[in-house]
From TrEMBL, chains A, B:
Taxonomic superkingdom: Bacteria
Gene Ontology terms for molecular function: metal ion binding; molybdopterin molybdotransferase activity
Substrates-to-products reaction catalysed: adenylyl-molybdopterin + molybdate = Mo-molybdopterin + AMP + H(+)
The organism of origin for this protein: Tessaracoccus flavescens
Protein's recorded name: Molybdopterin molybdenumtransferase
Xref: SUPFAM superfamilies: MoeA C-terminal domain-like, MoeA N-terminal region -like, Molybdenum cofactor biosynthesis proteins
Family: Belongs to the MoeA family.
Gene3D superfamilies found in the cross-reference section: MoaB/Mog-like domain, MoeA, C-terminal, domain IV, Molybdopterin biosynthesis moea protein, domain 2, Molybdopterin biosynthesis moea protein, domain 3
Length: 407, 407
């Protein structure tokens, strides 16, 4: 593994250091040309300029003659000699010539003005000038609404429905975006069974892999969940290596038994480069990350406790998924007023489960604490971020929270 | 068609009346049991109570004897006669009996307390009591963290990642949700070509159907876009009837020529019940809605002008899609400070294209007006709602806006 950040005096890596270390190990996916509707709601990876004019051609606004304005005056500034009327399908308007046009007719190349019918008198295929016009007069110019080269969309913008309309109307059918990251959630642990199956004594239903798979969807990934409810090293190794072909990121979850975690860690060591570290974070102190398989696919192992797993996901997996997407990796952080006092520990980033409520424009947050870990998470809609310098927050003080839902 | 709301003195139907009329003609889709991960981010259509206890069984906290607390005292309140030790695999603990337990062991049925080893002395298969315990003492009770019957999720809530964890952990693998509405966008107009193709004189690329298909995705639908770039009545009829089998809602878009609109309206008349009305709204005055085919599939025809089409979508199609989803049909309405004065007409709901910007907690909005309709929409992120009683808004006054994006 590339050199890791230094540890603090307590032998811990800060959350900020761990996050930036992991992000330095993962590159955004390569963009490709995706059809407009499939690319909806994705981040655009190119500046897009119009390749067309709207309207596409200059047209006559009035009945009359398409002319070159410069032909209308002689060297002395007087009205020039009569113009010769030529066929409308002329490739390019010759000097000294004119073409009869009706309103809406496309001007021939070379013409840059329309002489209204009343500004000249037509006889014997020639127009004698009565009045002049300047370049552009009585013309609805090509590109009046949209000019070739106008910036339609900039790199980094989200492709919304109106932008899709603008691009389609400009003749574009594809746009460079990154594919959705493919995240494979691998669930292991020999005491786990899938929900919907009967649970025998000593078994538990697998909740973590479903919760984390859904969280990865919420972060923007395409998710595959694979369960290997076993503790067999060879079986777990086979399952993970089988999945690498379709994974941009592997996330492993387990049932919370120490040996589940250790077996997966052993497998990671066998097939890749691994960083195992204690992070100055609570919960989620033990963090294991690797680059596994021949292609060095990033793999994050989440702790077995549901709260630790979910908090670790939000702290580290979500930024990795966003990095793969080429999207901002920062959290949806806002400030909220603490409803009660909260305690933390100096030197640790503490991520409390919280429930944010809004009254008018003011957000309040209270910590959620329940004996049932999954119930506690389900009651929460935010993580309260008490950073390394915080020992106590008093009721009524503002705290930073990460919102867990998009709305 | 069912009876339509009355028109006003000017022969117009109000936007509120038209909206509620259309909503009265469309029912939410029938919910079904969907697997947890597929149902992520959907509205749950049932109250879900836990069918399990967590922990599932009562277990001993200490080494000792599982007992019935009532057996420990005699009628006079003295310590009772010695208890008989029986096998641990007893189906139900007999009265006057005890079972040897280690910490974590499941108590036999009938037992409701653990007598610590030091509270009795064991000899000849019998325990002589030294101290008593009350019911529940030294027991980690079944359901201490989650009891059978506890409400896990209520009808109308969104299934987020944490709720998925809670349901999975409670042994549930399916949840009742409504399927995503299937919206078929049918594009017609003989001067339209798909983006990416060359455009000849008199042709335009089809922007509306792409924009509206993306808007339907944003509203939560599964979208199919079908182009019949023709004006042939039989061909359009065939295309629409072919699509009805997979459509919960058909939306028709066109290229803005009067005859495009009329051909589709004729087809709707031929295969369904149709409501055509002038609505007191600008833009989007002419509105055509029908119930078409044998199954009376709802079908909305959008105007050909891109701005009118998009505004009509937001006003009427989005609420219909949300109705099919069983989700709130109201708009994401907020208030914003007008950056400049705006004019409207009494008796009409005016939906200006607007750009909302936020400074701190204050939202400002300015109207966007550009000669290029698609460019104007792409610049906008809101619709400014000037209702029927508004003639003028002054700079600095608050106006209602509908936000167009989820974030």
């Amino acid at each position: 593994m590339p050199e890791a950040p230094a540890l603090d005096a307590a032998g811990l890596r800060s959350v900020a250091d761990h996050t930036s270390y992991l992000l330095s190990l993962v590159e955004p996916l390569r963009p490709f040309g995706m059809s407009l509707l499939d690319a909806w709601d994705q981040v655009v990876c190119e500046d897009i300029d119009s390749m067309i004019n709207v309207p596409p051609n200059s047209t006559a606004k009035v009945e009359g003659y398409a002319v070159r304005a410069a032909d209308l005056l002689d060297e002395d500034g007087h009205l020039a000699e009569p113009l010769e009327v030529v066929e409308a399908d002329v490739e390019r308007l010759p000097s000294g010539a004119a073409v009869v046009v009706a309103p809406g007719d496309v001007l021939p190349r070379g013409a840059n003005a329309v002489l209204p019918a009343t500004f000249g008198s037509l006889a014997d295929g020639r127009i004698r000038l009565i009045e002049k016009v300047a370049a552009g007069e009585y013309v609805r110019a090509a590109g009046e609404h949209l000019k070739v080269g106008t910036r339609l969309l900039s790199e980094g913008e989200i492709l919304d429905d109106r932008s899709i309309g603008l691009l389609a109307g400009s003749g574009l059918d594809k746009v460079m975006v990154r594919p959705r990251p493919r995240v494979v959630v691998v669930s292991s642990g020999d005491n786990l069974v899938d929900p919907g199956m009967g649970v025998e004594h000593g078994q538990a239903t697998d909740a973590n892999s479903f919760m984390i798979a859904a969280a990865a969807k919420a972060a923007g990934a395409t998710v595959f969940r694979v369960a290997v409810h076993s503790n067999d090293r060879a079986e777990i190794l086979q399952t993970i290596t089988d999945q690498l072909i379709r994974a941009d990121l592997v996330i492993s979850t387990s049932g919370g038994k120490r040996e589940d975690y250790e077996t997966v860690a052993d497998v990671m060591q066998e097939i890749g480069l691994v960083d195992t570290v204690n992070v100055a974070m609570s919960p989620g102190r033990t963090q294991t990350f690797g680059l596994v398989g021949e292609d060095r696919v990033p793999m994050l192992m989440l702790p077995g406790n549901p709260v630790s797993a979910y908090v670790s996901f939000q702290a580290f997996a979500r930024p990795l998924i966003r990095q793969l997407m080429g999207a901002p990796t920062t959290h949806r952080a806002v400030r909220a007023i603490a409803s009660h006092s909260m305690r933390s520990m100096i030197g640790q980033l503490h991520l409390l489960r919280g429930r944010v409520t809004s009254e008018g424009s003011v957000r309040q947050v209270e910590a959620v604490s329940m004996p049932h870990a999954l119930g506690e998470l389900a009651e929460s809609n935010a993580l309260i971020v008490l950073d390394e310098r915080v020992e106590q927050v008093r009721a009524g003080e503002a705290v930073k929270v990460w919102l867990l839902d998009e709305d």
